[in-house]
Amino acid sequence: MFTQKLSAVLLLAGSALAYNGRVQEVLRRQPKVGNVTHSFDVARCPGYALHALSETHNGLTAKLNLAGAACNAFGTDVANLTIEVTYETTSRLHVHIYDTAKSQFTIPESVVSRPAAAKGNTAKKSDLVFNYDASPFAFWITRRSAPHAAPLFDTRISSLPPTPIAPVMAGDNSTALDGFPLVFENQYLQLASALPLGANIYGLGEVVASSGIRRDVGTNGGVGTIQNDWARDIADPIDENIYGVHPIYMEHRFNGSTNTSQSHGVFLLNPAGADILLLTPPSSNVSLIEYRLIGGTLDFYFLAGPTPQSVMRQYAQVVGTPTWQPVWAFGFQLCRWGYTSLAEVKGVVAKMRSANIPLEVMWNDIDLYHAFRDFTADPVSFAPEEMRQWIAELKANHQHYVPIVDAAIPKELNSTDFYAPYSKGTELDVFIKNPDGTEYVGQVWPGYTVFPDWFAPNTLGWWTDALRNWSALGVEFSGIWLDMNEASSFCDGSCGSGIDISNTSTPFILPGEPGNFVAGYPEGYNATISGPSGNITVNGTLTYGATAQAALAARGIGAGNQSDVDLNAPPYAIHNANGRLSLHTLATNATHTGGYAELDVHSLWGLMEAEATHKALQAVLPNTRPFIISRSAFASAGKWAGHWLGDNFSKWEYMYFSIQGVLQHQLFQIPFVGADTCGFNDNSDEELCGRWMQLAAFTPFYRNHNIKGAISQEPYVWDSVAAASRTAIAVRYALLPYWYSLFANASIDGTPPVRALFWEFPNEPELFSVDRQFMIGSDILVTPVLTPNVSSVDGIFPGRGKTIWRDWYTGAALNTTAGANTTLPAPLGHIPVHVRGGAALLLHSAPAYTIEETREGPFALLVSPAADGSAFGTSYLDDGVSNPPGPSATVTVHASKGRMKIESKGKFRVAQKLEVVTVLGVAKKPAKVEVGGKKVKGFTFTDAEEKLVISGLSVDLNKGTTISWK
């Protein structure tokens, strides 16, 4: 959670990214090299020359030597580099440029494993081709299938005019180099590539981007995006670095003359602090992407696509496919910071049941803890034995419990204070240290703390024991919530030695306490007109805004072993919005086992904690799928955990931002993601919360969570929200077989479950920036209401009139405007959902209170034929919890005009029967309906909606059947 009192201190540079117009001052500055400050001229950066080329059956290696005198712009130029080019598959090309001495940091295989290269002569079969100029060295990537098209990545741009970049804060030297040469120094790496003018770029995160899912590349002489890569704890600022680091982008190119498109991906495997810029130089016919890193190597993976979804699948082959989610994870979940006792939590669960709003998982924030200490329960407010009994009751009702785990471990206060996680961790030597070998001390909720060192050999065992002991204490969790794991600390770097560790107070006032009340009115609230429910009066009138309205072999450990590196203040100041890198996190000179410096590994902390927690849960809860939600993440984190979008705000724009956040993380291969529904910070209201509960029901992770001291926003608080929630959750639970199948596919091959519209319709440019709608899989289109005071919403329907879209609720075909918006009715309590023509969806016909009860009920089948009468769908079924996944069955439906065939393959036995089949788009009432060759009478037909409903069935899905109508 976010430390509100620090927000004013931490948001140092909100306007610092704007071009300040002082071109010469920005471009000709005084970089510092060692203790010497001198003028810098880009002409002194000589670039590199390639020699000693050696080709192999799947690539090449060569040496790169400085082509002239070193420029030492932000450190010391590395004279001798090595380049390795490997055609790993026919669609993946790996280009790694590193210092020949191997002293720079590269992520150990134990942290992010590398994909194996395919066997055979992949160089001649690959659709990607590596091209180069030897001197000055530059390279570019083209498609074998389109050799004359513009390169996908092209570094031949050193002579382009420079573009000024504003500094992070007054007096620093983080501005642009004069031009775009290849620079490789011990603390500064730079590489830039040409992009088509106004390119369609997606990804590069984590970020709340003001430009939406399509990243801004700027216009003539302008910088559109500065994506900073440095994980930090901050409440969802716009266009600044936040919790996660994901240096991957997808570019989508459209050819208007042929009406075709192709996508490709570029992934830089480097966790170093970095700026990734999208910009357009003055009077240029190209845009650029420029990488500026303060460490590591240039370790690129190029992904050929050529479709958006194939790019994502290829990225999954690099970083790993997402973890399998337990089926109960798709249920509605509830939490808040400020449930002060178990009695209060029990009351919330009871009120949810009384309101008949399904609740699958109950969570606890840090209120659970004794003295804010991990792995404890307050002996009075959350007595462990009472917790054990209550959690047993939850389990008996097919519900689950998830508690929070913070990153920091509190120090013992004195000789009489015994806190086993700390004392045992000290004994096993599992905590991060200062450079002199003493214990690194930070400050978080419980006071002065230490931090687990995930590189230490004993840490996993210690972490596993801590979780196991916690469960044995009575906190018998079904999953774990990882928070504050950037890692966050309230000290400015290390708290030092000789501190009074008995002082356990936070250096700011907690939300909801005197001096920091969450007392602001909900957004748009007017005291004169708005009613007690917020922005909706008692009679339902809308009043929003009313005014009387692990180490690699032979690889160095990076900055921790380089005597000429400035660990505390790297010469190039990246655009970290906190300012100095150690502020509100660990000091950059903190030391990890093996000699790794925090400067190199900072953004890996959350990833490594997620992996350790995943493996620990496999031991504590054997044979079941670990359920983990983590705030901080790096590439490959989806192998271990899901993610929530952090400490957002109860604002309409943040409901909209949640869509781009979900879509970003599909590309990042962390598909199980969602926002704090109804908003975390500030006060929500009836209209916003109702609309948001509906929207979030169509995102993977569905949890309502808000801040301590704010007004309550559980869905039962307002009658209209309760009604909207029941309706939306019923749709979600009906769609559970579809959701579950999509996530099975994601875990098998990386196919994204939630999709931007153009991922399904890549040749329709009007969709390239659409992020106010989204698709679930290929068959469900969601058009949420994202603004207050309205009863309708505009949405575009892909297919340009050739695709049929039918209303989920009625089955009626929608009359759409080809290539433009269509206005849909959307009164309060209704979220428009449409089914694509050609879909065949296996559903649960009787959504119940819990996922388990829903799955025990019968199935239904919804068929929405395309214009030619065809439809197709598959559903993946298994027990939903086994780890690794056990036997499964795949149910397939093929439909054509007047007929469908249902088949099943696999060893999993499906106990529930198919009871109802609904076929849409049937032109006239059939005279005869047959199931399995036998005539049935139990069917109805609605002429106005062209809907045929066949009920009273008992089809064994293990055997399948045929259904016909005419």
From TrEMBL:
Name of the protein in question: Glycosyl hydrolases family 31-domain-containing protein
Alphabetized UniProt keyword annotations: Glycoprotein, Glycosidase, Hydrolase, Signal
Range of residues in the leader sequence: 1-18
Family annotation (InterPro entries): Gal_mutarotase_sf_dom (IPR011013), GH (IPR017853), Glyco_hydro_31_AS (IPR030458), Glyco_hydro_31_C (IPR048395), Glyco_hydro_31_CS (IPR030459), Glyco_hydro_31_TIM (IPR000322), Glyco_hydro_b (IPR013780)
GO MF, one annotated term: carbohydrate binding
Statement: the UniProt record of this protein carries the keyword Membrane: no
Native source species: Mycena belliarum
Keyword Ribosomal protein: no
GO biological process: carbohydrate metabolic process
Top-level lineage group: Eukaryota
Domain Glycosyl hydrolase family 31 C-terminal: 750-840
Residues in Glycoside hydrolase family 31 TIM barrel domain copies: 323-742
PANTHER family assigned: ALPHA-GLUCOSIDASE, P-TYPE DOMAIN-CONTAINING PROTEIN
Family listed: Belongs to the glycosyl hydrolase 31 family.
Parts forming coiled coils: none
UniProt cross-references to Pfam families, sorted A to Z: Glyco_hydro_31_2nd, Glyco_hydro_31_3rd
